[in-house]
Design goal:
This protein is an alpha/beta fold. The protein has two domains: 255 residues, Metallo-beta-lactamase, Chain A (4-Layer Sandwich), CATH 3.60.15; 35 residues, no CATH class. The protein is 27% helix and 26% strand. The protein is built from eleven helices and 16 strands. The strands form three sheets. The chain has a seven-stranded mixed sheet. A seven-stranded mixed sheet has the order 7-8-9-12-13-14-15, covered by helices on one side. It has a two-stranded antiparallel sheet with strand order 10-11. α10 packs parallel to α11. The N and C termini lie close together (7 Å). The structure holds zinc ion (2 copies). One zinc ion binds next to loops. The site of one zinc ion has 7 residues, from α2.
Length: 302
C-alpha cells in the first residue's frame, strides 16, 4: 500500500461531536505527514489509531483557527511524551513567531527540533523531496494567505523484463545500468532501454486544495492527480456566502475536478449547518461523477 490518506477532521470553522475541524494524515511510501491541525486533532488522531510520534512533516495551509489551533497542543504532547525525532513544519511565515512566543511564555522547551520552512506565495514550487516523494505548495485564493499542497510519488527505478535478462544474458552491471533508465551498450550490440525494461507504472499523486474560492489556475495546479481533496463549504444555494467568505460551493469544487481531469474527488470542509451531505454530493455529481463526501476516519488508498 504505497499511499493511504486518513481524514482526521472534515468540518469547517467549529468542531462538533460528529465532525472535527480540518486535519489529514498521509502515509505515502512510509513518509508520515499531517496536513493541517485544527483544534482537537491530537484526540482525533488517537481516536483513529494514528501513532502521532511517527509524523515527520506537518503542513499548515493557513492561519484560520480551524486549520492550526491544534498544533501547539500536538507539539506539546509530542514533547511531553519524550519525542527526540525532528519535526519538519511547512507553514505561513507568521506561524514561526506565533509558536515561538507561545512556547516561550509557557516556558516550554520542546524535546525535539522543530524546523520551520516558510511557504512562498509566488506560484507552485517544490518544498520537499527525497528519493520517494515530492511535495509542492501552491497559493490559493482565500481571505488570508493560503496554500494547497501536491504530493507526488517520485519516479522509481525501471523494472527489468526477466525474459530479457535470460535472452541477452545481462550482467549485474548491465542490469544496474538499465534500472537507471540507460541503454546497454556492448561492443557488437546495442540494447535500447525500452526493449529490456517493463513499462513504468503511473506515479501516484494527491492534492489538497485547502480553503479557497474558485479560480482558473487551480485546475493547473492539481492537473491529473489521482485524488483531489477540495473544500465544499457551501452549495450553490449559499453562493453569496461562498463569495463573501472566499469559499467554494460543491459545484465549483466539481468544476475544478473536471477541468483538472482528476481520478477521484473528495469533498470536505463542510459547514456545520449541513444536517446531511446529500445535497452537497448531488450538486457535485451534476458536474463530476466520481466524488464522495468524506467523514472523519475515512481512509483512501492508492
Ligand atoms: Zn477552514
Ligand atoms: Zn480559512
Amino acid at each position: 500500500m504505497p499511499f493511504k490518506l486518513t481524514i482526521i477532521g472534515s468540518g469547517s470553522a467549529v468542531p462538533i461531536v460528529s465532525r472535527g475541524v480540518t486535519s489529514q494524515y498521509i502515509n505515502f511510501n512510509e513518509r508520515h505527514m499531517l496536513v493541517d491541525c485544527g483544534e482537537g486533532t491530537q484526540l482525533q488522531l488517537r481516536r483513529f489509531k494514528v501513532k502521532f510520534q511517527r509524523i515527520q512533516m506537518i503542513f499548515i495551509s493557513h492561519l484560520h483557527g480551524d486549520h492550526y489551533l491544534g498544533l501547539v497542543g500536538l507539539l506539546s504532547s509530542m514533547s511531553l511524551l519524550g519525542r527526540t525525532k525532528k519535526v519538519n513544519l511547512f507553514c505561513p511565515p507568521e506561524l514561526e513567531e506565533l509558536l515561538k512566543v507561545q512556547f516561550e511564555l509557557a516556558g516550554i522547551n520542546l524535546s525535539f527540533d522543530l524546523e520551520f520552512n516558510h511557504l512562498n506565495p509566488n506560484g507552485k514550487m517544490v518544498i520537499f523531496q527525497d528519493n520517494v516523494i515530492q511535495v509542492s505548495s501552491f497559493p490559493v485564493k482565500h481571505r488570508i494567505p493560503t496554500w494547497g499542497f501536491h504530493f507526488q510519488e517520485k519516479r522509481k527505478e525501471k523494472n527489468i523484463d526477466p525474459a530479457k535478462i535470460a535472452e541477452h544474458k545481462l550482467t549485474i552491471e548491465e542490469i544496474q545500468t538499465a534500472k537507471k533508465g540507460e541503454d546497454v551498450v556492448r561492443e557488437a550490440e546495442y540494447l535500447r532501454n525500452e526493449d529490456i525494461t517493463l513499462p513504468d507504472k503511473p506515479l501516484l499523486s494527491y492534492a489538497y486544495s485547502s480553503d479557497t474560492k474558485y479560480f482558473k489556475e487551480m485546475a493547473k495546479y492539481v492537473k491529473g492527480v489521482d485524488l483531489l481533496y477540495h473544500e465544499a463549504t457551501f452549495t450553490e444555494k449559499q453562493k453569496d456566502r461562498a463569495v463573501k467568505t472566499k469559499h467554494s460551493t460543491a459545484k465549483e469544487a466539481a468544476q475544478v475536478a473536471k477541468e483538472a481531469g482528476v481520478g477521484k474527488l473528495l469533498l470536505g470542509h463542510f459547514s456545520a449547518r449541513f444536517k446531511s451531505t446529500d445535497e452537497v454530493l448531488n450538486e457535485a455529481k451534476t458536474v463530476f461523477d466520481n466524488c464522495v463526501c468524506v467523514e472523519d476516519g475515512d481512509e483512501f488508498i492508492l
